Amino acid sequence: MREAAFVKQNKEKWIAFEKAITQNLRISPDQLAEYYVHLTNDLSYAQTYYPDSKTLLYLNSLASQAHQKIYINKKESKNRIVEFWKTEFPLFFYQHQKTLLFTFLVFSIACCIGVISAINDSSFLRLILGDAYVNETLNNIEKGDPTGIYKSGSMVGSFLGITINNIRVAFIAYAFGVITSLGTVYVLFSNGIMLGAFMTFFYTKGLLFEASKSVWLHGTIEISVIVIAGCAGIVMGNSILFPKTFSRRVSFMKGAKDGLKIVVSTIPFFIIAGFIEGFITRYSNMPVWLAMTIIFSSLALIIFYYIVYPRYLNKIYERELH
Fold first, then answer.
1. Are residues 172 and 278 both part of a single domain?
2. Computed over its alpha carbons, how large is the radius of gyration of the chain?
3. What pLDDT is attached to residue 55?
4. Which of 8, 70, 262, 276 has the most C-beta neighbours closer than 10 Å?
5. Where are the alpha helices (DSSP H) in 50-87?
6. Residue 117 predicted with pLDDT over 90
7. What angle do CA 228, 305, 263 make, to 5 degrees?
8. Are 58 and 39 within 8 A, CB to CB?
């Protein structure tokens, strides 16, 4: 590549980075580090192909400033954990929202397959949900309490067990990304088909609304966050399949770190979902308006934190940058 073309291709990126480090703009540590990785990549390329150029001198100077900004003058916030969820993660996650959309579509398709299969094959329900679960639920339906399965066990025990299990599922969805994105897609498909079959089971019994009123109390956050954990696995899997300008090893390390950060962000939401399932879902006779309030508030929380808020912060950052 000619030097002029190289400069034209990367000029805007370098200028944005220079503004970020010289004007002390608000930028997350990870985004700053990502800029730095791209810069050192360009610097290595310039050293190889343009050894006596002004471009190389400029990139060397910029890299030196960036190194000082990241490693020498780094100050750790006393409220590092709060800062992570308040600013750092939402700014970081903005770049992965398209992957989240893809993950949601995969999960939705799997749900549709589960619904169609369960409607057309009565044995499919038992194959997916298991005989024990189906039989217990049928007994509860006969007793007039279709979601009675959520009332078993102590509140605290249920809360802890459910939360730990949900976090385990999330880490599995992420970890399967190590065998490329197909591994995570498999986990998403399995859970999506199960959800579709589960809701169809109640539909065939004429209890869809009654079941939904109870199940989605905790399921709104629980299912949403499983999809987000799937996004984490696909981010890691795609880093293996599509390394871009990085070596595959460097790309994988970056993808694994990014994916892990997404999974970690879901832990508070799984705790909320576990609390709702352990302490609230068992009260299936609560007023419809109260159940709907909890369900739609949960949905609004997820949409705000993973879609609306990252876009809002990104607009503020871009305004400061320009």
1. yes
2. 24
3. 80
4. 262
5. 54-67, 80-83
6. yes
7. 35
8. no
Identity of the amino acid at 109: I
C-alpha span between 5 and 244 (Å, rounded): 18
pTM: 0.73
Distance CA 120, CA 118 (A): 6
> Is the distance from CB of 97 to CB of 309 less than 8 angstroms?
no
Query: Which of 202, 199, 177, 203 shows the shortest CA–CA distance to 188?
Result: 177
Angle made by CA atoms 242, 248, 251, in degrees to the nearest 5? 75
Closest CA to 281 of 230, 233, 211: 211
> From the centroid of its chain, how far is CA 224?
9
Q: Pick from 162, 154, 195: which is nearest to 269 by CA?
A: 162
Residues 127 and 220 in one domain: yes
- Indicate if 65 and 171 belong to the same structural domain: no
Q: Which of 233, 262, 274, 239 is nearest to 92 (CA)?
A: 262
Residue at 229 is within a domain: yes
CA max distance for the chain: 83
The encoded tokens of residue 215 equal: 């199940």
* b/e sequence 96-131, b meaning 16+ C-beta within 10 Å: beebbebbbebbeebbeebbebbeeeeebbeebbee
- Average pLDDT rounded to a whole number, residues 273-287: 78
- Token pair, residue 148, equals 């009675």
Same domain, 49 and 107: no
Q: How many domains does the chain have?
A: 2
Q: Tell me the pLDDT tens digit for each residue of 177-191.
A: 888 888 899 999 998
> Is 213 in a helix, a strand, or coil?
helix
What's the mean per-residue pLDDT of the chain? 82
Instruction: Domain of residue 53: give its range.
Output: 3-75
Burial of 169 (0-12, 13-18, 19+ CB in 10 A): middle
pLDDT tens track for 139-151: 878 877 766 666 6
- Amino acid making up residue 215: V
Structural domain includes residue 285? yes
